[in-house]
């Protein structure tokens, strides 16, 4: 009966994904001061300043021209973006008679078919500089390969939906028609701050035809306005840092100088101690029955997530200088280790389900679970809350202020999302309420994980009876019900089978909103985890003996399943891919297949059938990374957007260069995760455990998996 209930509830959740809210940013939550942009416009003063520069100050004129308009370099490899010189433009500040000329940086969108009389600063130099050649360049006169233009359009269209989902507004596929009109240039213009872009382009750049131009955005110095969220963030983090300093001082005084017995030191007074919390983080005491290999699985999965996001974020940010090279690489067989990257999140879903059973079975009976259901939920939510709230608060304010750049708009969009929809993220309902405007675009995982955790007692109540027949009926019945519902849902909706599919760019947003972040379609790995967790519980403290042929066969099955899952990302990335039946099969069965393969890997490691693989995964090296993995997941993506919002020129995509970027992103994520752990997460963990009292007790077990905030709150 529980399987039917689970089927109905998850199916209803899937049906709820029928629409989403359009983001509306209240004025007091805006990133930029729009009144500032409007107040500086003065058409009469603009004409006066432009005229003065053209007649009396050619050096100042050259500063504007040098910091702005250019033909995009690498157009033949798909680049349609030129970012000018952002900081040079905003530094312009020159006193002239009657006024001060200051720079304003703008981005404009121009169709490829627009008639430019000039796209280069060298063409607009004054006549008194006769010795400098003035090549006349008109993009409409370029003999461009039509196939390259079509591929460029395909690339920008393919990543458009994924970019929008992550907060990047794509404009390069907005003009329909022939390939030559399907490309939109995104060009920087440095203009006097008193001018509108259209007036300045006509006056400074000698562009006669401006009807096709469209303003994207403008930036001015110090245009990020202060809002309530900024003050709240600085006050809260300031208090936390002060508490860390005081608590650490007290801890060192008692522990190092007075050498008091740890039992005599007040636990709450040292809860914020960086000294004690660091020792707890890096110290590990072996516990019999602990699933040591999970640390390695988490660490490798986390590295794969960050690696995949490094590639995806650079591509989705659309600041690459060679998009056609990116498209060629994405569709090659050598890219499957990245294009298959989204499957690694299902590893965490499987681990989450596994730990729910493994840490609960034997600790609670069915009746105790029902009586303490509020603690079951509250313990999970409270352990996830502090770090999540801290990262949201960082995004609301501090990350928006640590840097700047010509492409900072994508950071500002994500900041605005957090200022408007922070509440849905903390409630873990953002995948249904506002899937296209999530605060923390990757937080959909947490929402689904929490929703699966909320539904899990429908199965756990039967598993904890101690009756194996009931337990297996509940587990298998729930898995079959969810698989049947998800498969039916997928075949009805005919989704594409990946976040970026070059052959179906128009379907990306629909796939992301209605499949990718849907609990129904992503819940099967969690149920596989419940089954694997129950298997491990039944054999806790025992040595499972498998015939060598059986263990070898299971390894072959797991390797084949994992190989097919990874390889399936190759054919769907081809420009000619068009097989809806295969898409539906991939969407329905690939994720549980991957979870089964990982489940066997863990089972084999625990019971001695993994050889050197278990040795590698169980190394103490992975302990710290495993404990930091939850916060690393939360913070790494926002940090990537900050880094990718800073470049002042388009970035040339190269696999080796991106791998070096991954090392930088990974190292930065580890450092910031450690700081958040010491300042926020670990102190809150101590306080929560103190006031909750640890929840319901159980009789001393023979062996148990240690309950750590870093191991049981999610798959992390």
From TrEMBL:
Recorded superkingdom: Eukaryota
Gene Ontology molecular function: acyltransferase activity, transferring groups other than amino-acyl groups
Keywords: Membrane, Signal, Transmembrane, Transmembrane helix
Alphabetized InterPro entries for the sequence: Acyl_transf_3_dom, Nose-resist-to-fluoxetine_N, O2_lipid_transport_reg
Record PANTHER family: O-ACYLTRANSFERASE, O-ACYLTRANSFERASE LIKE PROTEIN
Cleaved signal peptide residues: 1-19
Entry keyword ATP-binding: no
Keyword Transmembrane: yes
Segments of skewed composition (Basic and acidic residues): 704-716
UniProt name for this protein: Nose resistant-to-fluoxetine protein N-terminal domain-containing protein
Region feature (Disordered): 695-716
Pfam families noted in UniProt: Acyl_transf_3, NRF
């Amino acid at each position: 009966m529980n399987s039917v209930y689970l089927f109905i509830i998850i199916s209803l959740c899937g049906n709820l994904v029928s629409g989403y809210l359009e983001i509306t940013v209240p004025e007091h939550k805006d990133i930029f001061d729009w009144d500032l942009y409007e107040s500086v416009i003065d058409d009469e003063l603009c004409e006066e300043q432009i005229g003065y520069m053209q007649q009396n100050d050619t050096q100042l004129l050259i500063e504007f021209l040098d910091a702005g308009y250019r033909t995009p370099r690498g157009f033949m490899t798909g680049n349609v973006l030129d970012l000018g010189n952002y900081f040079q433009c905003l530094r312009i500040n020159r006193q002239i008679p009657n006024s001060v000329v200051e720079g304003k940086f703008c981005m404009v969108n121009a169709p490829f078919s627009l008639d430019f009389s000039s796209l280069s600063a060298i063409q607009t130099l004054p006549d008194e500089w006769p010795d400098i050649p003035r090549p006349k360049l008109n993009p409409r006169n370029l003999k461009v390969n039509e196939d390259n233009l079509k591929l460029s359009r395909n690339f920008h269209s393919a990543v458009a939906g994924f970019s929008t989902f992550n907060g990047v507004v794509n404009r390069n596929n907005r003009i329909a028609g022939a390939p030559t009109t399907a490309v939109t240039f995104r060009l920087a213009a440095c203009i006097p701050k008193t001018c509108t872009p259209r007036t300045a382009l006509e006056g400074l750049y000698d562009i006669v035809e401006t009807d096709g131009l469209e303003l994207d955005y403008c930036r001015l110095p110090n245009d990020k306005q202060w809002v309530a969220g900024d003050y709240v963030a600085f006050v809260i983090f300031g208090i936390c840092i002060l508490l860390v300093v005081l608590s650490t001082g007290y801890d060192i005084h008692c522990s190092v100088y007075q050498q008091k017995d740890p039992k005599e030191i007040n636990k709450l007074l040292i809860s914020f101690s960086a000294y004690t919390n660091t020792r707890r983080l890096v110290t590990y005491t072996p516990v019999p029955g602990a699933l040591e290999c999970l640390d390695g699985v988490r660490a490798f999965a986390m590295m794969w997530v960050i690696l995949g996001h490094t590639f995806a974020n650079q591509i989705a940010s659309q600041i690459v200088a060679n998009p056609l090279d990116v498209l060629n690489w994405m569709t090659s067989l050598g890219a499957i280790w990245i294009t298959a990257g989204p499957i690694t999140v299902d590893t965490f879903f499987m681990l989450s389900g596994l730990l729910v059973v493994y840490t609960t079975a034997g600790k609670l009976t069915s009746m105790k679970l029902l009586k303490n259901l509020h603690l079951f939920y509250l313990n999970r939510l409270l352990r996830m809350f502090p770090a999540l709230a801290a990262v949201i608060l960082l995004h609301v304010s501090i990350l928006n202020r640590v840097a700047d750049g010509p492409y900072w708009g994508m950071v500002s969009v994500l900041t605005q999302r957090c200022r408007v929809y922070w509440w849905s993220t903390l409630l873990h309902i953002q995948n249904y309420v506002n899937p296209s405007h999530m605060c923390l675009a990757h937080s959909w995982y947490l929402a689904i994980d929490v929703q699966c955790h909320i539904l899990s007692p429908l199965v756990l109540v039967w598993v904890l009876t101690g009756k194996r027949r009931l337990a297996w009926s509940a587990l298998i019945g729930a898995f079959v019900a969810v698989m049947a519902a998800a498969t039916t849902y997928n075949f009805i909706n005919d989704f594409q089978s990946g976040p970026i599919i070059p052959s179906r760019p128009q379907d990306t947003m629909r796939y992301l909103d209605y499949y990718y972040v849907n609990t129904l379609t992503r819940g099967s790995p969690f149920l596989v985890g419940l089954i694997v967790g129950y298997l491990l519980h039944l054999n806790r403290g025992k040595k499972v003996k498998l015939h060598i042929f059986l263990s070898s066969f299971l390894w072959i099955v797991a390797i084949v399943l994992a190989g097919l899952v990874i390889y399936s990302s190759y054919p769907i990335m081809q420009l000619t891919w068009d097989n809806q039946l295969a898409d539906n099969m991939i969407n329905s069965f690939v994720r549980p297949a991957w979870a089964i393969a990982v489940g066997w890997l863990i089972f084999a490691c625990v019971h001695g059938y993994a050889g050197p693989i278990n040795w590698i995964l169980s190394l103490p090296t992975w302990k710290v990374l495993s404990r930091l993995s939850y916060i690393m997941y939360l913070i790494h993506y926002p940090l990537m957007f900050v880094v990718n919002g800073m470049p002042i020129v388009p970035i040339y995509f190269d696999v080796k260069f991106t791998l070096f970027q991954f090392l930088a992103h990974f190292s930065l994520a580890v450092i910031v995760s450690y700081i958040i752990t010491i300042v926020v997460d670990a102190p809150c963990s101590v306080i929560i455990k103190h006031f909750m009292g640890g929840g319901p007790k159980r009789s001393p077990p023979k062996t148990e998996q240690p309950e750590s905030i870093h191991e049981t709150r999610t798959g992390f």
